Amino acid sequence: MAVVKRIRLFLIESPIRMARLQGVGNVKGTVKRVLLELTASDGTIGWGEAAPWEVFTGTPEAALAALDIYLRPILLGRPIRHIRETMALLDKALVGHAEAKVAIETALFDMLGKQTGLSVADLLGGRVRDTIPLSFSIADPDFDADLERMSAMVPAGNVIYKVKTGVKPHREDLAHLEAMRARFGDTIDLRLDYNQALQPFGAIKILRDVDQFRPTFIEQPVPRPHLAAMASFAAALDTPIMADESCFDAQDLTEIVRLQAADAISVKLMKCGGLLKAQALMAIADTAGLPGYGGTLWEGGIGLAAGTQLIAAAPGISLGCEFYMPHHVLTEDVLEERIPHRDGQVVVPDGPGLGIVVTEAAIRANSRVLAMRD
Fold first, then answer.
1. What does the pLDDT read at residue 327?
2. Mean pLDDT, residues 284-304 taken together
3. Which residue of 5, 23, 169, 257 has the lowest C-beta tally within 10 Å?
4. Cβ atoms of 218 and 192 closer than 8 Å
5. pLDDT of residue 28
6. CB under 8 Å to 71, separation ≥6 — which residues?
């Protein structure tokens, strides 16, 4: 039985095309992440990615240390096929560091898929969809630039747009939403995301103001702990409320369901800690009747390939995904060939494992390697 023989880590920095303003924090210039290459005793190679964000989950430097110092000794020599057991051992050895564990689990599934000739979606139970509707986030400080992007993207079939609200003055948010509806009408699927920007006191008035623009959902209007306020919004508004920062794991979701604090959830591998944990999260959501949405932090092509495979095999993650980084924000990605987007949809790769090709040459050509561990 093949086991993990070699572990290589790359802390990389990638330039981005545009600044991003969000209620929980801003990004400009570059993003950092950790890439993981595992090699099995039979020569099979698998890739994973850890993409923390310091204002959301943690730091790339901490993920690098977690992988290199604490998790490496446990992972070396582990059977490739014993993924669930390996992940339990990692959880026992190190609390938290979900992103580092995502990278390991993804690489193990990538290797297992290549060994068996199956895609990760097949290994997760089989796909229910071959394409996923793509959502683009309106978060450029220059709203006119985003409006021009939409003018090019909408005719190409990209019709889902999630507006980052609560960062600029409320009056500006209303003006931007009005401009989008005036130019594109009901041809676009409009969604709003406050990223915890509002305080519970007075938030309902702001949310009623934006309700007039008929958004598909309003995501995380208030900070993570305020589930009672979230429940009040869900009860008072016609527009569904989505939980993101309030829903990291199954325990969070159990409380959300108990309080009826949301109508939908954002599922992010970097939050919940892996593909298997995301499936467990969606088992609760499916039972409670809460649809899922494929959210992201700042992953590149490897992390988003894992998310694509997850959604392909998850019936309940039915609200699309925001896997636009490699095509629209990163100047270059580390994949030899990017995952296709077609007519506003992400096309799920059907090759073995993640269905992608990564090489060290591509990593070094398309990013700045800040540190490497072998």
1. 79
2. 94
3. 169
4. yes
5. 60
6. 90, 93, 94, 97, 100, 101, 104
CA distances from residue 252 to 227, 246, 258 in whole angstroms, order as listed: 10, 7, 10
Burial of 17 (0-12, 13-18, 19+ CB in 10 A): exposed
Q: Give the contacts of 26 (CB within 8 A, at least 6 positions apart).
A: 19, 20, 167
Q: Name which of 14, 355, 302, 295 is nearest 134 in CA terms.
A: 295
pLDDT at residue 276 above 90?
A: yes
Q: How far is CA 49 from the centre of its chain?
A: 12
pLDDT digits (tens, 9 = 90+) for 2-59: 999 999 999 999 887 766 666 555 666 788 999 999 999 999 999 999 998 887 778 9
CA atoms within 13 A on the CB side of 105: 30
Distance CA 317, CA 194 (A): 21
Q: What is the pTM of this model?
A: 0.94
Which residues, at least 6 apart from 118, have a Cβ–Cβ distance to it below 8 Å?
A: 112, 352
Q: What is the mean pLDDT of residues 68-91?
A: 98
Q: Please name each of the domains of the chain with its CATH number.
A: 4-117+357-373 (3.30.390.10), 123-347 (3.20.20.120)
Handedness of CA 300, 306, 309, 313 (dihedral sign): negative
Listed residue (199, 192, 274, 297) closest to 237, CA to CA: 192
Q: Which amino acid is at 23?
A: G
